[in-house]
Design a protein that fits this description.
single chain; about 120 residues; Alpha-Beta Plaits
């Protein structure tokens, strides 16, 4: 029995913005997340380029062996931060791997603040 050879016609490159959309959706759906939080690079890009980044608080780094994602969030007051961070990691990993079929090496969560209800 002969195995059929797979013919490679090229490669597929998925932009960081597409991955960021998946990360954004998965993060905001997570219970306990108030919003995303832009870091210093988002502030610099807003001040220098004059426009606010589309996906503030999300940094995507692709390599041959997978994707590394950094997410900066603000959590709601009263939640258990480690549990929320764990849930974000699980949701983001699942969403990205399902959508782009690339392995996720790491999802790093940066909690930049707590949102108090008024």
């Amino acid at each position: 029995m002969a195995l059929a050879e797979e013919e490679k016609l090229g490669y597929v490159k998925i932009s960081d913005e597409v991955i960021a959309i998946c990360v954004l959706n998965a993060t905001l759906k997570t219970e306990g997340v108030s919003s995303l939080s832009g870091g210093i690079t988002d502030s610099i890009s807003k001040n220098i380029l004059g426009k606010e980044p589309l996906y503030k608080g999300i940094k995507v780094n692709q390599s041959e062996d997978g994707v590394t994602i950094d997410v900066s969030v603000i959590v709601k007051y009263g939640v258990k931060i480690p549990e929320v961070a764990w849930d974000i990691q699980e949701n983001v990993k699942k969403e990205v791997e399902e959508m782009i079929e690339m392995p996720v090496k790491a999802v790093n969560i940066h909690v930049n603040g707590v949102h108090f209800e008024e």
